[in-house]
Amino acid sequence: MKHLVMVKWNETVSDKKALAEEVLALFERAVAENSEIEDVELVLNAVDLPNRYDCLFIIKIDRDELPVWNNCEPHKIWKSDYSKYLQSKAIFDWE
């Protein structure tokens, strides 16, 4: 399954790419620490407009292992430390 997280950073973020890459490194730590999480990929938006999301994180994981992702330490850090930078996010899962 692919667990997609689309992110729109808020106005406090001056370097959107750097912050996205920081989060990617955090998510890659989840891959290294949990064999159930297969891979993570970052896709940056090519157009910086107010009505566009800034980036997309694609986490490859078996559907039944989603609780592993939700409970891993990097995901907890994502929620606790990075939510202050979010204007909005959308989550979509597909197989």
Helix amount: 25-40%
Number of strands: 4
Strand content of the residues, in percent?
Answer: 25-35%
Helix-strand pattern = EHEEHHE
Shape call: globular
- The helix-and-strand class reads alpha+beta
CATH class: Alpha Beta
Q: How is the biggest beta sheet arranged?
A: 4 strands, antiparallel
CATH third-tier fold name = Alpha-Beta Plaits
**Low-pLDDT sequence parts:** none
Total domain units: 1
Adjacency order of strands in the biggest sheet? 2-3-1-4
Rg on CA atoms, Å? 13 Å
Write the CATH architecture name: 2-Layer Sandwich
The number of distinct helices, counting runs of at least 4 residues, comes to 3
Gap between N and C termini: 4 Å
Describe what you observe in this structure.
By secondary structure, this protein is an alpha+beta fold. It has one domain (2-94): Alpha-Beta Plaits. It is 36% helix and 34% strand. Strands 2-3-1-4 form a 4-stranded antiparallel sheet.
